[in-house]
């Protein structure tokens, strides 16, 4: 029945919905998503109650004719369908966009965690290089940065300086320990796993909502 509406009919705004006790959500993000889904259920229930109550049915038809006199000649069924169609227009913009934004944010979070995890071996290696070469570098400094000492320990000193420079470029003043890095690595793995779990959940919820919406519209068209 929703498809039987004249596409040129004016769409009711939130003030018109409010007249029959149905309020649109003024929230954002996930809250708006949840409230809009609840609102859709309220409208479907209103539709069923209206068809079952003759007095309310006649009152609504009279109200519609008064509000839209140019469309008073259309069938009563179309007049009742009109509110569902109007709400459907809002949901086309609201529901998918909120789901998509949420899924994109979760996907980005998982990718960021993945990149950090990929960098982990290199960071651990650099920390170990600094620790392993620390004594040699301290001795090199005490020797007044002797060229002879440098030549005798070129590899250790070069590795130490390169690792320190890498952390300096990252803005790290106090070097983490390997234990701290292992703890952070475990946390990153957990965050990545949780982000992907929430992503799959959001994707399934979007699919479930689309299926439920289709089933409701199909039922109302019988």
Describe the structure.
The chain is mainly α. The protein folds into 2 domains: 111 residues, no CATH class; 92 residues, no CATH class. Helices cover 79% and strands 0% of the residues. It contains 7 helices and no strands. It is rod-shaped. The N and C termini lie close together (8 Å).
Brief overview:
This protein is mainly alpha-helical.
Biggest beta-sheet profile: none
Task: Note the overall shape.
Answer: rod-shaped
Arithmetic mean of pLDDT? 65
Radius of gyration: 32 Å
Q: Tell me the total number of β-strands.
A: 0
Would you identify the regions where 5 or more consecutive residues have pLDDT less than 50?
1-13, 89-96
Q: In DSSP terms, counting alpha (H) and pi (I) runs of 4 or more, how many helices?
A: 7
End-to-end distance, in Å? 8 Å
User: Helicity level, as a percent range?
Assistant: over 70%
β-strand amount: under 5%
Secondary-structure class: mainly alpha
Could you spell the SSE succession in H and E letters?
A: HHHHHHH
Number of domains: 2
List keywords for this structure.
mainly alpha, 79% helix, rod-shaped, disordered N terminus
What are the SSEs and their pairings?
Elements: H1 14-19, H2 29-52, H3 54-67, H4 76-142, H5 147-152, H6 154-169, H7 178-220
Helix pairs in contact: 2-4, 4-6, 4-7
């Amino acid at each position: 029945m929703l498809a039987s509406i004249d596409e040129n009919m004016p769409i009711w705004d939130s003030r018109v919905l409010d007249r029959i006790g149905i309020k649109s959500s003024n929230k954002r993000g996930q809250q708006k998503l949840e409230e809009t889904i609840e609102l859709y259920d309220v409208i479907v229930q209103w539709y069923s109650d209206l068809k079952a109550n003759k007095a309310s049915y006649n009152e609504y038809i009279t109200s519609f004719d008064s509000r839209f006199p140019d469309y008073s000649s259309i069938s009563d069924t179309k007049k009742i369908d009109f509110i569902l169609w109007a709400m459907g227009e809002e949901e086309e913009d609201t529901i998918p966009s909120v789901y998509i934004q949420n899924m994109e944010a979760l996907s980005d979070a998982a990718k960021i965690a993945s990149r950090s995890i990929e960098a982990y071996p290199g960071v651990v290696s650099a920390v170990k290089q600094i620790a392993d070469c620390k004594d040699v570098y301290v001795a090199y400094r005490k020797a007044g940065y002797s060229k002879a000492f440098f030549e005798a320990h070129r590899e250790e000193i070069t590795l130490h300086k390169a690792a320190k420079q890498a952390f300096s470029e990252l803005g790290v003043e106090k070097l983490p320990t390997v234990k701290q890095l292992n703890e952070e690595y475990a946390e990153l793995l957990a965050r990545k796993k949780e982000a992907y779990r929430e992503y799959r959940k959001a994707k399934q919820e979007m699919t479930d909502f689309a299926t439920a919406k289709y089933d409701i519209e199909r039922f109302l068209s019988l």
